[in-house]
């Protein structure tokens, strides 16, 4: 690694920590339909307004020993964890994507923002079983500069097809489960999420994401199910967007490799 890379690494890590701090606000307030701009963050127990020096990502949590400075109410360890994961998501594209030209750097920022929004969707859907429209719209907005960093007509078509295929295949699954199983198998939020992400990832990677997400869901269900000897949660709502979000971040970086490996090793092409 060159010095310039280490310099960028530190900048991206710090940016990621700060974005992660704001992401905590989004994750808490969006599903509760509160404004994400006003008011300033406060302790939910005593109403103590969090001062600037108490709002430094990760460090404040350690410095305050995970407690409100006023009433000593415990602050969830989720806050620093989200900040650290976001910092990792911001450093990751620098390590995994080429970074020589201004366009490469634009792609790094787009990949970082894309995975940040997916992290918010991961947590919100897991907790509340909803995918806020605001987050899906921000992915669509993010896909616009992503079009212009890849000045290739074929890639543009792949992304537009990704929008139709991503939304279409989940719409079809929703229709089929409604018709034959007589219940809502796929949520409307999942359909919109797949369409929006197809616009960023292209049709090959969005289909792969769906497949990877299905595998992740199966593994998690088996892991959760076996230790507590519970029945398969058929009929229960299993949030799908967390697995989908994780799968999309995997496919963003490794999708092409996985598809190439599949075509050459398994299909023998
Ligand atoms: Zn307090």
Number of domains: 2
Q: What is the overall pLDDT average?
A: 90
Please, how many helices?
Answer: 9
Bound molecules: zinc ion
Written account of the structure:
The radius of gyration is 20 Å and the shape is globular. The protein folds into 2 domains: 1-88, no CATH class; 97-269, no CATH class. The protein is built from 9 helices and no strands. With 269 residues, the chain is mostly helical. The relative contact order is 0.09. It is 70% helix and 0% strand. The chain has helices spanning 3-29, 59-63, 78-96, 102-128, 133-149, 153-180, 188-201, 203-228, 241-266. Bound molecules: zinc ion. Residues 43, 45-46, 48, 68, 70-71, 73 line the site of zinc ion.
Layout of strands and helices, then pairs:
Layout (H helix, E strand, L loop, with lengths): L2 H27 L29 H5 L14 H19 L5 H27 L4 H17 L3 H28 L7 H14 L1 H26 L12 H26 L3
The protein binds zinc ion.
Write a short abstract of this structure.
This protein has helices at 3-29, 59-63, 78-96, 102-128, 133-149, 153-180, 188-201, 203-228, 241-266. It has 269 residues and is mostly helical.
Give the tags:
269 residues, mainly alpha, 9 helices, 70% helix, binds zinc ion
